[in-house]
Amino acid sequence: MKISMNWIKEFVDLDGISTEELIKRFNLATAEIEGYEEKGKEIKDVITARIEKISKHPNSDRLQIMQLNVGKPELVQVLTTATNIYEGMVTAFVQVGGQVCGQKIGKATMGGEDSFGMGCSESDLGIGSDDAGLWDIKEDVPLGVDIKQLWPVDDVVFEIDNKTLTNRPDLWGHYGIAREFAAIFGRKLKDIQTLDLTKFEGLKKLHVKNNSEHCFRYGALAAHNVTVKKSPIWMALKLNYCGMRDINLLADITNYIMLELGQPMHAFDHDVVSGIEVVEAKKGDKLLTLEGEEHEIPEGSIVIADDKKVPVAIAGIKGGLKASISDTTTNVLFESATFEAPVIRKTSRAIGLVTDASQRYEKSLDPELTEIAMGRILKVLSEIDKNIVVSSSFTDVYSIKYPKITVEITAEFISRRIGVELQKSQIESILKSLGFKVSSRGETIVAEVPSYRATKDVSMKEDLVEEVARMYGYDNITEQPLAFNPIPTELNPAVKQEYDVKKLLAEKYDANEIHSYIWNYSDFNKSHFIASEPVVSLMDSSNAGQSGIRKDLLPTLLKVLDENKNTNSEFRIFEIGRVAANINQENLVNEEKRLAVVFASQSASCEDLFAKLNQFIVDYAKNNLLIDIELKEGDKPAFMHPVNTFRVTSREGDYGYIGVLHPKTANLIDKRLKIVALE
Question: Which one, of 57, 205, 44, 181, lies nearest residue 120 by Cα?
């Protein structure tokens, strides 16, 4: 995830702190910053200019000659291949000696005509997505002024590892990250500026109906008379620096709020969608997306439908083409909602569509954020477009609320666990800086968890220990020896027995241990003539032929051998794993631990492999179990050789079998391999 430090500094003053210090302290306290990029660094002497005159190049069909007004009496001649230019257009111009894309611009001559600089597209400058021609600056700006004086072109953009934010939905927006920086460096966090939604309570409500238990909160509000179509340059800059394309104002502003607050929003064309019903998808429901892709919506997924129950969006993932915003949209219906995280994740994976919105919904968003986001989007929109008229009240269906969480803790509890003596006042100050409401009852600290940390993150005392420790600074905690003398104990006999087997196989017989799943792979077994039906079956066995829990271990190793047969010509693998052997009289599963070993080779003979495997059994029985074993005729699985397979026995009982794999099964795995095995 990309984070603009210009954006962060709108909410917290970080003056006097170097980029290196910001990264170091954030890495230690919060999440991993993988790297950073200095935006605008490679842009120099790029100024605003107006095209006063355009003429054809006398010796080239592709080139045109522009006369640019750069705020001086003399016009500057520049050649261009751009086709979107017109007289009166204001654009960005690199002067001779200036730099763009890290490349210095000099005077050039093409077809006998001189060019004193270069006109730039948005993508040339890395500040926008449009590369179809020169940057058409629609805003009222002075001429001949460096673009860095007009817009925040210079920026530092951090790349934060998403995996370290999995349990922190509050950090999926700039404001949440700013809150962390404020707490880490002891700076004040500014309030987010929103429009007061209570001002619109007298307006009519929208038709909003929630028919899904997986939609926790759904808020909607309508605005009319949107006249500005293109996003202001400062907004397009932020979006592009954070990895998103600018499209049009209404689409961009929802992405802007998502990147700022972490709350996804959606804008519907209100002329198409007059009301909303949140429903669960029926079999066969489909949605045509903005990109023209048709997706079949999995049954039970959350769907946003219009008042005629026609799907217009897959909730939390993607909007549909039918109600999408276009350049002609003037009336808009904004959505701000919260959906159940596992349902969004399941739907997203089922249709193969992971979006910026779905990634955030999967993290269990705070439903309280939906109202803040609606107030924020109206505040930003009204500042950009003075003509908008809010035409409905904030229609809010709040179906499921997370419970408020209060955690009681003492300074002594925290100090004992982190190994540093901290004062009660110090702990309270740290928790308050992170947004916790803190009160005292004697020596007890009572901390009310803020809603943005209460959906899946902070719920118990140990969580508060982590909060205090990370803000105090893990690097400030001195290493100390354990406060007790550990007494060595005897290794559990069963564990020692397993260890002895593994050590012998690995060190003396050069075998590799594997770890497999407990499933019975019925498709593989059936196709390889392995009769091994599970005694415990799965109700849904559609996944990769997993029909139940295995009752034999060796078929799993044979499957592993089959999957890896092209990587080596020699195999020695083993596993100690669990099986569901049978059902007892109480109808409960008898679970057993088994050892299975497979030796396979393209060069060695079956006789040599069998002798080596038999040597292992004799070796282990004699030296570890202190018994003598012998091989006898007896029951054997049908996938083992009918003659060259034997029971492994002693005076104490029967242990299992050893032998050569049946040729039918062995040839299906690999005709080149000779395979012996035991269980």
Answer: 44
